[in-house]
Amino acid sequence: MGLFDLQGQVAVVTGSSRGIGRAIAERLAEHGAKVVISSRKQDACDAVADAINTRHGAGTAMAVAASLSSKDALQALVDRTLSAYGRIDTLVCNAASNPYYGPLAGIADEQFRKILDNNIIANNWLVTMVSPQMAARRSGSIIIVSSIGGLRGSSVIGAYCISKAADMQLARNLAVELGPHNVRVNCIAPGLIKTDFAKALWDNPDALAARNAETPLRRIGEPDEIAGAAVYLAAPASQFMTGQSLVIDGGVTI
């Protein structure tokens, strides 16, 4: 098997109807994995799964809508995947919420709780649902898409940054717990990427120019530039890596 060969693997990718999640799912499929596309809306998931099946063959992708806020929906996502494919080798926790921009003093309790529930607790739900069959096979990779926001402060997305720092610690704790079963848990920490999710941070030309000026590579990233890290973390190439956060940010945090 090649270092980046995912033949025979099954990967579940949340938030994969667009942006970083879609790029990850497409690249995992390109490297041989079966992929399960999941986000809140079934029609959006269907469109991505259809595109992947057209490119890589029928049965490569399936679509299962699930909301991060519903534990039952996430359990159904896991159950339907196991029913269809018999296993889950890689879980990519990519979906996240950020309903508030501004100082922490102004955030409503329900907004703060939604960020923490969807970006941290839902990830732990999914890991708890998926990891037993990984542990039983003594093989599996869990990838949490965090953010460089988890490494520094922000005056406008503070609650989101707090949740992403917690994701890095979640990965460390889960790596300790699941490591004896040969299940690995890592984070990817992207910088600013040109996605709809992050549009408020790059859509203003002046703000974008300022961000580019402070980035060593002088630009923000594209979704596909995050996908290779997920391929690496799902593949045999990374089998001795766990509990880490892989920063991909054009050099911003250096």
Q: How does this structure look, described?
A:
With 254 residues, the protein is α/β, with parallel strands linked by helices. The protein has a single domain, classed as NAD(P)-binding Rossmann-like Domain (Rossmann fold, 3-Layer(aba) Sandwich). 46% of the residues lie in helices and 14% in strands. The protein has 8 helices and 7 strands; from the N terminus they run βαβαβαβαβαβαααβ. It has helices at residues 19-30, 42-56, 71-85, 109-137, 158-178, 199-202, 205-213, 224-234; strands at residues 10-14, 34-38, 61-63, 90-93, 140-145, 183-190, 245-248. Strands 3-2-1-4-5-6-7 form a 7-stranded parallel sheet, sandwiched between helices. The termini are far apart.
Summarize this, please?
The chain has 254 residues and is of the alpha/beta class. It has helices at 19-30, 42-56, 71-85, 109-137, 158-178, 199-202, 205-213, 224-234; strands at residues 10-14, 34-38, 61-63, 90-93, 140-145, 183-190, 245-248.
**Which blocks of ≥5 consecutive residues have pLDDT under 50?**
none
User: How would you classify the helix and strand content by structural class?
Assistant: alpha/beta
The CATH level-2 architecture is identified as: 3-Layer(aba) Sandwich
CATH C-level name: Alpha Beta
- The run of helices and strands is EHEHEHEHEHEHHHE
What's the average pLDDT? 95
Q: Which sequence of strands runs across the widest sheet?
A: 3-2-1-4-5-6-7
Count of distinct structural domains: 1
List keywords for this structure.
alpha/beta; globular; about 250 residues; Rossmann fold; about 45% helix; 8 helices
